[in-house]
Amino acid sequence: AEEPKSLPDYAAWKERNALIVHSANTMETQRGAIGNGVITSSDRLFVRNNLPAPPASVTENPDIWEVRIEGVKNPRTLTVGDLKKMGVTTVASVLQCSGNGRAFFPHGASGTQWSVGAAGCIMWTGVPLKDVVEALGGPADGARYITSTGGETLPDGLDPKTIIVERSVPTRAMETALLAWEMNDEPLTHTHGGPLRMVVPGYYGVNNVKYVKNIAFTENQTDAKIQASGYRIREVGVKGAPDQPSMWEMNVKSWVTAPLETARSGRNMIYGVAFGGTVALEKVDVSLDGGKTWKQARFLGPDLGPYAWRPFVMAADLPAGEHRIVSRATDTQGNSQPEGRTENERGYGHNGWSDHGVTVAVS
Ligand code: MSS
Predict the structure, then answer these.
(1) Which residue has the CA at smallest separation from atom 23 of ligand 1?
(2) What is the largest CA-CA distance in the chain?
(3) Which CATH code fits 9-228?
(4) What angle do CA 38, 324, 322 make, to 5 degrees?
(5) What is the DSSP track for 231-294?
(6) What is the pLDDT of residues 216-261, one digit of tens each?
(7) Which parts of the chain fold into alpha helices (H)?
(8) Which of 179, 177, 165 is nearest to 67 (CA)?
């Protein structure tokens, strides 16, 4: 058996037993550690870094961190201290890696083999991007994208465009995006992007740029590799290219979190989580027979808004034997999870209900 990996220094404060450590840059929440709460506790939240994180010292005095805002009528460099005087809001939203569910692709999609745990529901506090942009005279004419740049120090000797974390999202995201300095009511750690993070509710993880140091309203998407060819949906065997769909708005998704492997016969509570990306959820159905018959589950706890996930529960009488338990979420626009996968080269955006089910041995 493989030696259990320890947590890297920059994430040493996390709850080791709640996580699967894939590498120093990738840790996911154990399916059984997701729990039934509306918010994922910070010490259980997954971590994914494309580059080594900046040192913890960047969050010692968060208010002096600078972010340059460009592509607006009056471009400016602002500190986090300045931003804190421009407005504040709190939004609950799901942070999910584009590759969550990659482990289910049979072609062996390259990248971290995430199961279900590269996701969590987080409370973000910061200034609405819209307030900042309005204070700077609004976006420049012709702006179609918001391009955010991460503040990592880039290794020498490599073309920066091939490694920099710089992501463009369409300007429609300005209505909901925020520049966050708190996560779950605490100052944002450097592990999760402190002192300042671009948060785009309902968009895949990669667009939520950590240690953000530059925000630009641009006519075109950045030509950084992570945007131009990375995080693009394409058929198996095809290279990434700018004309393929980018990983922006998340699709509707759910999965069961308990029971996972075994249960006692009789009354059981089936738990899970569900979310609709940028669209509010309508309902979750649960099947105890692998998708032949379905029954509507009940949402648990408060509704924290359209970008949050909703834990759900369904009481079930389980007789002894093997049961394939699956869940299927539907959003308020009528989109439901499909049964199968959309096969794609890098294993992105998997929301098929069949693969996400669990087989439980009931005795
Ligand atoms: N940011 C930066 N700066 N860097 C990096 O690397 N990554 C991404 C985001 N952001 C990065 C950033 C990703 S990719 C993800 S998922 C996220 O982040 C995660 O988060 P956390 O906090 O959990 O770690 Mo996939 O789509």
Answers:
(1) 47
(2) 68
(3) 3.90.420.10
(4) 125
(5) SB---TTPPP-TTSPBS-BPPPEEEEEES-SEE-SEEEEEEEEEE-TTS-EEEEEEESSTTSS-
(6) 999 999 999 999 999 999 999 999 999 999 999 999 999 999 999 9
(7) 80-83, 129-135, 160-163, 225-228
(8) 179
Question: Is pLDDT above 80 for 38?
Answer: yes
Q: Which atom of ligand 1 is nearest to the CA of 96?
A: 16
- The number of the ligand 1 atom at minimal distance from the alpha carbon of 49 is 6
pLDDT tens digits for 127-179? 999 999 999 999 999 999 999 999 999 989 999 999 999 999 999 999 999 99
Cα(139) to ligand 1 centroid in Å equals: 26
The CATH number, out of the four listed (3.40.109.30, 3.40.50.1000, 1.10.10.10, 2.60.40.650), of the domain defined by the range 253-362: 2.60.40.650
**Ligand 1 centroid – CA 96 distance (Å):** 9
**Ligand 1 pocket, mutate which of 46, 188, 196, 206 (most atoms under 8 A from CB):** 206
CA of 27 to the centre of ligand 1 (A): 12
Question: What pLDDT sits at residue 4?
Answer: 74
pLDDT of residue 309: 98
Question: Count of CB atoms within 10 A of residue 283's CB?
Answer: 17
Phi, psi of 14 (to 5 degrees): -80, 165
Mean of pLDDT values over 76-91: 98
Residue 203: closest CA among 337, 306, 69 = 306
Q: What pLDDT was estimated at residue 87?
A: 97
The Å distance, Cα 361 to ligand 1 centre, comes to 36
Cα 61 to the chain's mean position, in Å? Answer: 27
**What ipTM is given for this predicted complex?**
1.00
Position 3 confidence tier, pLDDT thresholds 50, 70, 90: low
* Closest C-alpha to ligand 1, atom 14: 206
What residues does CATH 3.90.420.10 cover in the chain? 9-228
8 Cα: distance to centroid of ligand 1 (angstroms): 16
Query: How many angstroms separate the alpha carbon of residue 262 from the centre of ligand 1?
Result: 34
Which residues make Cβ contacts (< 8 Å) with residue 37, sequence separation at least 6? 301, 311
Distance CA 350, CA 135 (A): 39
